[in-house]
Amino acid sequence: MSRTKTTRATPVRHATSLGGRIPTIALQVELMPSVTLPGWTRGSFTHSGFTRDTHRAGSGPGVIVVHEIPGITPNVMSFAREVVDAGFTVVLPDLIGTPGRAVSSAYNVSSMAKLCVAAEFSTWAANQTSPIVAWLRALGAELHAELGGPGIGAIGMCFSGGFALAMMVDERMVAPVLSQPSLPFAISKRRGADLNLSPADRLAVQRRAKDGCQVLGLRFKGDRLVGTRFESLKRLLGDAFIAIELESQNVTDHSVLTEHRDEASVARVLDFFREKLLTPT
Questions:
Q1: pLDDT in tens, 217-226
Q2: Contact (CB, 8 A) for 65 and 47
């Protein structure tokens, strides 16, 4: 991997406590490494006040793969490569962490600390769509304008698990996948049931589901980070929600497609993308 240094201006929130209000926003300027991943073309995309690196590979309809905590790890890259090999153009946005760096306890903690205060993610508040979703919608629109086809797909994992749901507001999103959605943090029953959607986005997503847009969701049944969101999704989406719920083998089971990989679930996700993006209608 090759690296260059870029300065990234990141708006950050300062929280006084886990349950407290977040009254102020400051601008934190960090010297961030830009990493070029082998086999991927690094680019950059700016929208809604955010600029983030992207990594792209493949050909065919577009799929956005949004990484989990702590970042674009080797296992996230391996999954994304499988999506490429299935016949898709994949874009990996770099939202947190260092692309290509392996998972470790220290890395998890440092990425989580950044996530907790970053303004682009609604980590604590209920009934809010994370601001970074506007950036993701614009990225998807640009990808579809370039590639064409019936639409685009997206998958989020962990903190980004609900982002593909919020991207359904844009009708170009026809293959949304939610893997272990975990925002806002499930520190209360209310937050654990929340879908990281504003009231307006919630109505738009429900309308899309009634019009036939299906949503694929995956989780381990014992994963406390997911809370009761699958019940919320079933109520909101009805028969349009396809739930893959796996028995937990360990209390730490969380990352369905990467660190705690379930092979059948990976195959189901790839089939879902094929059904929605490659099958003639």
A1: 999 999 999 9
A2: no
